[in-house]
Amino acid sequence: MASMAAAFIKPTNAFPQSPITFVKTISPSIQLPISLRIRNNARRRIRVSCGLIDPDGGKLMDLIVDESMRAFKNREALSLPRVKLSRIDLQWVHILSEGWASPLSGFMRESEFLQTLHFNSLRLHDGSVVNMSVPIVLAIDDAVKTRIGASSKVALFGSDDRPVAILNDIEIYKQPKEERIARTWGTTAPGLPYVDEAIKNAGNWLIGGDLEVIEPIKYHDGLDSFRLSPAQLRNEFISRNADAVFAFQLRNPVHNGHALLMTDTRRRLLDMGYTNPILLLNPLGGYTKADDVPLHWRIKQHQKVLEDGVLDPETTVVSIFPSPMHYAGPTEVQWHAKARINAGANFYIVGRDPAGMGHPTEKRDLYDPDHGKKVLSMAPGLERLNILPFKVAAYDKTRGKMAFFDPSRPQDFLFISGTKMRTLARNKENPPDGFMCPGGWSVLVEYYESLVPANIGSIPKPEAVAQLKSCRS
């Protein structure tokens, strides 16, 4: 995997470990979140200048203990009441420790939880507002609450029974599960993946406090070199002399329609007057539902996309975003955008039904596909971020490649859905030439081949994939 990292990221000097503050120098004339204004600016070909956007709250949080104090903090953790972290809990510790959720200093206390739940934002001590749309909380049950007793701090332990962090100045409060689910997802229907995985069977209490993470979170899965922190990403952008950073998140393989959107965005930024816009291709790397393509296969596919020249390695940084996935539509997409501000992005590409999914009990989308991009243009605390809505891309049969949809000749376009793409790959059928680079498609086919047991000659259907994965875990 080390060679994969080299394919994506140019070598840079060692990254600083201490918290850093970056000063924005964005031209006021282009700090506009509405795509219409961006298009107007592009037509005027304004001159722009840009440094990296400030993190939320003005400072990038770094909650990892200094190396000289790690042995001491490890010993201290062994003497404290213990809270066992789930896999998703550990992913949130990772998010908090590196500053993706700045200005949060740890798991939310009740006041932060309620502001997030009801306002999708946090009001800071100076009166300013930052976006925060999903609760970042840690659940405990009655037995753990009793063991904690009157202690003001607890130790967080991983699945290997090693201390991960200390949570200080703790506050324990009731978890209103139904209210949390209803306000985050807009429904309490059964079958919401994150709810089933992380909330339904979790404890009825939440514990908040300030985190001290004993050492950087590592997964030892061959992909840690791709998990750049916001501080590391900011240094990477500086080393490349970026004057604009545009972020694109996905949890699926990259096809040529995605690539068209990303390359066209760079062209638009150059037309606006930027000289070196850098793409942050930031695949989600935390929890995803069982039928999504696993992270290591997606990274392998992304590597082929760059190797085949579909995206330019000189202007692209591929790095894993370690957040778990909620599938909470317009609520969650605000979190995705806010986290990229902290990573240094001042432009965010948003498409149809971002962070959405099918309704768990009805045959329809859970969210209106246009609401995500509309919400992002109005969301509190995201005013500094320029939102770039997708153009609709489809396969142009007359040109033999992905192109922007032309409503004057709809008969010439073929829409290949994610479901159709997965069906073709499972059946070892090729998509139309120009839909995806050959190397990337071969990785996708290889993934679905890996799901076929050696003694079975048929490809499992989507509903069988989740069952097969659960048997392997």
From TrEMBL:
It is an enzyme of class 2 (transferase). SUPFAM superfamilies: Nucleotidylyl transferase (SSF52374), PUA domain-like (SSF88697). It catalyses: sulfate + ATP + H(+) = adenosine 5'-phosphosulfate + diphosphate. Pathway: Sulfur metabolism; hydrogen sulfide biosynthesis; sulfite from sulfate: step 1/3. It comes from the Eukaryota. One of its GO terms (cellular component) is chloroplast. InterPro entries: ATP-Sase_PUA-like_dom (IPR025980), PUA-like_sf (IPR015947), Rossmann-like_a/b/a_fold (IPR014729), Sulfurylase_cat_dom (IPR024951), Sulphate_adenylyltransferase (IPR002650). Pfam families: ATP-sulfurylase, PUA_2. Its EC number is 2.7.7.4. One of its GO terms (molecular function) is ATP binding. It is found in: Plastid, Chloroplast. Residues 225-447 form the Sulphate adenylyltransferase catalytic domain. One of its GO terms (biological process) is sulfate assimilation. Keywords: ATP-binding, Chloroplast, Nucleotide-binding, Nucleotidyltransferase, Plastid, Transferase, Transit peptide. Belongs to the sulfate adenylyltransferase family. This is sulfate adenylyltransferase. It comes from Cucurbita maxima (Pumpkin).
